[in-house]
Protein backbone atom coordinates (compact mmCIF):
# COMPACT_ATOMS: atom_id res chain seq x y z
CA UNK A 1 0.00 0.00 0.00
CA UNK A 2 1.18 3.49 -0.87
CA UNK A 3 -0.13 6.57 0.96
CA UNK A 4 0.32 10.04 -0.52
CA UNK A 5 -0.90 13.39 0.84
CA UNK A 6 -1.40 16.11 -1.77
CA UNK A 7 -2.01 19.78 -1.04
CA UNK A 8 -3.42 20.95 -4.36
CA UNK A 9 -5.02 19.63 -7.53
CA UNK A 10 -1.66 20.00 -9.31
CA UNK A 11 0.01 17.77 -6.71
CA UNK A 12 -2.79 15.21 -7.13
CA UNK A 13 -2.23 15.27 -10.88
CA UNK A 14 1.54 14.86 -10.39
CA UNK A 15 1.06 11.81 -8.12
CA UNK A 16 -1.33 10.26 -10.63
CA UNK A 17 1.02 11.06 -13.53
CA UNK A 18 3.73 9.10 -11.75
CA UNK A 19 1.38 6.13 -11.36
CA UNK A 20 0.25 6.46 -14.97
CA UNK A 21 3.84 6.15 -16.16
CA UNK A 22 4.03 2.77 -14.36
CA UNK A 23 0.83 1.28 -15.74
CA UNK A 24 0.86 -1.59 -18.20
CA UNK A 25 -1.70 -3.07 -20.56
CA UNK A 26 -4.48 -4.83 -18.67
CA UNK A 27 -4.34 -2.62 -15.58
CA UNK A 28 -7.67 -1.62 -14.09
CA UNK A 29 -7.83 1.26 -11.61
CA UNK A 30 -10.85 1.23 -9.30
CA UNK A 31 -11.52 4.46 -7.44
CA UNK A 32 -13.13 4.80 -4.04
CA UNK A 33 -14.04 8.28 -2.89
CA UNK A 34 -16.97 10.58 -2.47
CA UNK A 35 -18.37 13.21 -4.77
CA UNK A 36 -15.76 15.91 -5.40
CA UNK A 37 -12.89 13.88 -3.93
CA UNK A 38 -10.78 14.26 -7.05
CA UNK A 39 -11.29 11.09 -9.06
CA UNK A 40 -11.45 12.90 -12.40
CA UNK A 41 -8.48 15.08 -11.40
CA UNK A 42 -6.53 11.91 -10.60
CA UNK A 43 -7.52 10.46 -13.98
CA UNK A 44 -6.16 13.61 -15.63
CA UNK A 45 -2.76 12.73 -14.13
CA UNK A 46 -3.02 9.07 -15.17
CA UNK A 47 -3.72 10.23 -18.70
CA UNK A 48 -0.66 12.47 -18.68
CA UNK A 49 1.48 9.61 -17.37
CA UNK A 50 0.26 7.42 -20.23
CA UNK A 51 1.23 10.10 -22.76
CA UNK A 52 -2.38 10.99 -23.56
CA UNK A 53 -2.39 14.62 -22.40
CA UNK A 54 -4.67 16.14 -19.77
CA UNK A 55 -7.87 16.79 -21.72
CA UNK A 56 -9.90 14.59 -19.34
CA UNK A 57 -13.51 15.20 -18.41
CA UNK A 58 -15.90 13.38 -16.10
CA UNK A 59 -17.72 10.50 -17.82
CA UNK A 60 -20.84 11.10 -15.69
CA UNK A 61 -23.26 11.45 -18.61
CA UNK A 62 -21.37 9.44 -21.23
CA UNK A 63 -20.64 6.51 -18.84
CA UNK A 64 -17.25 6.08 -20.55
CA UNK A 65 -14.71 8.41 -22.14
CA UNK A 66 -11.86 7.04 -24.24
CA UNK A 67 -8.45 8.70 -24.40
CA UNK A 68 -6.21 7.49 -27.23
CA UNK A 69 -2.84 8.32 -28.68
CA UNK A 70 -0.27 7.42 -26.04
CA UNK A 71 1.26 4.05 -25.26
CA UNK A 72 -2.23 2.61 -24.80
CA UNK A 73 -5.85 3.71 -24.63
CA UNK A 74 -7.35 4.73 -21.28
CA UNK A 75 -11.03 3.92 -20.75
CA UNK A 76 -12.53 6.17 -18.07
CA UNK A 77 -15.81 4.80 -16.68
CA UNK A 78 -18.42 6.24 -14.34
CA UNK A 79 -20.40 3.47 -12.62
CA UNK A 80 -22.50 5.75 -10.40
CA UNK A 81 -25.79 4.58 -11.94
CA UNK A 82 -24.79 0.92 -12.31
CA UNK A 83 -26.46 -1.33 -9.76
CA UNK A 84 -26.41 -4.83 -11.24
CA UNK A 85 -24.54 -7.09 -13.63
CA UNK A 86 -27.27 -6.42 -16.22
CA UNK A 87 -26.62 -2.68 -15.89
CA UNK A 88 -22.89 -3.30 -16.24
CA UNK A 89 -23.39 -5.45 -19.32
CA UNK A 90 -25.58 -2.77 -20.91
CA UNK A 91 -22.63 -0.32 -20.77
CA UNK A 92 -20.61 -2.62 -23.02
CA UNK A 93 -18.03 -2.95 -20.24
CA UNK A 94 -17.18 -6.55 -21.14
CA UNK A 95 -16.54 -5.62 -24.80
CA UNK A 96 -13.58 -3.29 -24.15
CA UNK A 97 -10.11 -4.71 -24.96
CA UNK A 98 -8.67 -4.25 -21.45
CA UNK A 99 -5.87 -6.75 -22.10
CA UNK A 100 -4.30 -4.23 -24.54
CA UNK A 101 -5.21 -1.04 -22.69
CA UNK A 102 -6.14 0.18 -19.21
CA UNK A 103 -9.21 1.50 -17.41
CA UNK A 104 -10.01 3.91 -14.60
CA UNK A 105 -13.39 3.34 -12.94
CA UNK A 106 -15.19 5.93 -10.85
CA UNK A 107 -17.75 4.64 -8.32
CA UNK A 108 -16.13 1.21 -8.54
CA UNK A 109 -17.94 0.19 -5.34
CA UNK A 110 -21.00 -0.41 -7.52
CA UNK A 111 -19.24 -3.13 -9.54
CA UNK A 112 -16.71 -4.44 -7.03
CA UNK A 113 -17.92 -8.02 -7.42
CA UNK A 114 -17.14 -7.95 -11.15
CA UNK A 115 -13.58 -6.58 -11.06
CA UNK A 116 -10.53 -8.81 -11.55
CA UNK A 117 -8.53 -9.87 -8.49
CA UNK A 118 -5.48 -7.85 -9.57
CA UNK A 119 -7.41 -4.56 -9.75
CA UNK A 120 -5.49 -1.54 -8.45
CA UNK A 121 -7.64 0.24 -5.84
CA UNK A 122 -7.22 3.95 -5.23
CA UNK A 123 -9.03 5.59 -2.34
CA UNK A 124 -9.15 9.38 -2.34
CA UNK A 125 -10.09 10.98 0.97
CA UNK A 126 -10.82 14.69 1.26
CA UNK A 127 -8.81 16.22 4.10
CA UNK A 128 -9.59 19.87 3.33
CA UNK A 129 -10.62 21.98 0.36
CA UNK A 130 -7.36 21.24 -1.46
CA UNK A 131 -5.72 18.42 0.54
CA UNK A 132 -6.24 14.78 -0.35
CA UNK A 133 -5.09 11.51 1.12
CA UNK A 134 -4.51 9.05 -1.71
CA UNK A 135 -4.17 5.37 -0.85
CA UNK A 136 -2.96 3.05 -3.60
CA UNK A 137 -3.54 -0.64 -2.98
CA UNK A 138 -1.59 -2.55 -5.60
CA UNK A 139 -0.15 -5.60 -3.92
CA UNK A 140 3.29 -4.03 -3.63
CA UNK A 141 3.83 -3.75 -7.37
CA UNK A 142 4.72 -0.03 -7.31
CA UNK A 143 6.29 0.19 -3.85
CA UNK A 144 9.89 0.23 -5.15
CA UNK A 145 9.04 2.99 -7.64
CA UNK A 146 7.51 5.30 -5.05
CA UNK A 147 9.40 7.69 -2.77
Q: Give the class-level CATH name.
A: Alpha Beta
How much beta, percentage-wise? 25-35%
SS-based structural class?
Answer: alpha/beta
Mean pLDDT: 89
User: Helical region count?
Assistant: 3
Q: In CATH terms, what is the architecture?
A: 3-Layer(aba) Sandwich
Estimated helix fraction = 10-25%
The largest pleated sheet is described as: 7 strands, mixed
What is the β-strand count?
A: 7
Radius of gyration: 14 Å
Distance between the termini: 12 Å
Summed up:
The protein is an alpha/beta fold and about 150 residues long. It has 3 helices and 7 strands. The longest helix has 14 residues.
What features would you describe in this structure?
It is a single chain. Helix content is 21%, strand content 25%. The relative contact order is 0.25. The chain has 147 residues and is of the alpha/beta class. The protein has a 7-stranded mixed β-sheet with strand order 1-7-6-2-5-4-3, covered by helices on one side. It has one domain (2-133): P-loop containing nucleotide triphosphate hydrolases (Rossmann fold, 3-Layer(aba) Sandwich). Helix 1 packs across helix 2 (39-49).
